[in-house]
Amino acid sequence: MKLTVIGCGYLGATHAACMAELGHQVLGMDSDMEKVAIMNSGKAPFLERGLDTLIARHTADGRLEFTASYEEAAAFGNLHFVCVGTPQQPGKHAYDLGHLFTAVRKLSPWLRSPAVVAVKSTVPVGAAPRVRDLLHEVAPAGDAIEVAWNPEFLRESFAVKDTLRPDRLVLGFDSENSRAEAVLRQCYEKIIETGTPTIVTDWATAELAKTSANAFLATKISFINAIAEICEASGADVDRLADILGHDARIGQGGMRPGLGFGGGCLPKDIRGFMARADELGVGRALTILREVDAINSRRRERVVDLARRQLDDTLVGKRITVWGAAFKPGTDDIRDSPALAVARRLHELGATITVTDPQALDNARKRHPELDYVDDPIAAVEGAHLLLHLTEWPLYSRLDPDRLAARTSTPKVIDGRGTLDAETWRRAGWTFRALGRH
Ligand code: UGA
């Protein structure tokens, strides 16, 4: 099939490359010319496991190309995936749908023949009819343009795998047996024939599938973090407890890692956008649980700041703190709403000098937060530090030798915000060791 992907961020670039891998002819469209040039040269514009290989492979075999032109995209094929970002509105909880409607508005005038526009961006429920209305109003092909809602559940750093081998496919349409369904089934044929559960539903259910899934995942993380608070107060060990709970198949081990909590470009803004939409629908009370989920998550960051202050005898001014981790989670260079950087910035505001290290996200962090200091080598970063904070659980950090690290500082104190350092080894090496949810 010939298809396009409008918006080549974490979602769109991955989707475009994976559709080429499935055998389709793909044109990715992004208004950022620099990004388009990077991808046309066969490289991924950000870190995502396996993406570089796919982009290199399919820009070379001619199945994948990128453009900054809506006109070219519209003329390229009759299936257009919309993958633009829907961030949180500044100062509000609601989604900012500006990029979505701008993309649809710019694509529409060039849609002269029947086509399917399949939206993958995460939206508040009720956006689909607005997209349809805009398309029908502006596109020369009018109501021959069909809208499908096709949410994506990929996790950053597993995005290629999650796209090619998803847990399920969700396809939302506004009528039964629509032509759009046949088109999407053809597009995903190779995935469907492996037995992937494929759920066909209406627009609203498809829209809600995404925000409800993320709300549930966030709730699970905040639940175990609330339990971590109880563990700290009662002397229990939250890691053991999470393991015990996870053996119950109804609870499961996934998303039960206690620690500094969730960040990134999705979970935090999705629970807020979901609450804002529920308010608009007059059912805000249904999601008050998410307010608590958000509050528990914020308290994790405050807790680390508080523990740091206490470890430094209540004086942060003039203290040197090293932070291991800038990415919002390991395996990515994405720093959007990074819990590690939120803690680093807060401690900086309170007067400490912060040195941040990260194996992949330093360039992004340096650009966004020039007020912090950055060092590439996690061992060198500890030199002269009064306190070390482990805030993004890159596997390399738990392999570093605490004996060697202790020699770099005269006050070996560490706070493990992610529960992946071995307390005993660190204590044996002379470190004062504190962890969230453990003693
Ligand atoms: C999340 C969802 O997991 C995806 O299903 C969804 O498609 C995606 O958002 C999206 O909306 O696009 P992602 O943001 O890549 O994916 O990250 P997760 O792996 O879910 O982690 C989110 C945050 O929660 C990270 O900061 C991570 O460190 C934290 N986390 C995760 C925990 O603190 N504990 C856990 O047990 C799991």
Give an account of the 3D structure:
- The protein is an alpha/beta fold and 439 residues long.
- The chain has three domains: 2-196, NAD(P)-binding Rossmann-like Domain (Rossmann fold, 3-Layer(aba) Sandwich), CATH 3.40.50; 211-296, N-(1-d-carboxylethyl)-l-norvaline Dehydrogenase, domain 2, CATH 1.10.1040.10; 300-435, NAD(P)-binding Rossmann-like Domain (Rossmann fold, 3-Layer(aba) Sandwich), CATH 3.40.50.
- The chain is built from 18 helices and 14 strands.
- It has helices spanning 10-21, 33-40, 51-60, 70-76, 98-107, 127-138, 159-164, 179-187, 189-192, 203-234, 238-246, 267-280, 288-311, 339-349, 362-368, 395-399, 402-406, 423-428, and strands spanning 2-6, 25-29, 64-67, 79-82, 115-119, 145-149, 169-173, 198-202, 320-324, 353-357, 373-374, 387-390, 413-416, 432-435.
- The strands form three sheets. A six-stranded parallel β-sheet has the order 3-2-1-4-5-6, sandwiched between helices. Strands 11-10-9-12-13-14 form a six-stranded parallel β-sheet. Strands 7-8 form a two-stranded parallel sheet.
- β5 (115-119), α6 and β6 form a beta-alpha-beta unit.
- α10 crosses α12, α10 runs parallel beside α13 (288-311) and α12 (267-280) packs antiparallel against α13 (288-311).
- The longest helix is centred in the middle third of the chain and has 32 residues, at 203-234.
- Uridine-5'-diphosphate-glucuronic acid (UGA) binds at residues 122, 152-156, 214, 217, 221, 255-257, 259, 261-264, 266-267, 328-329.
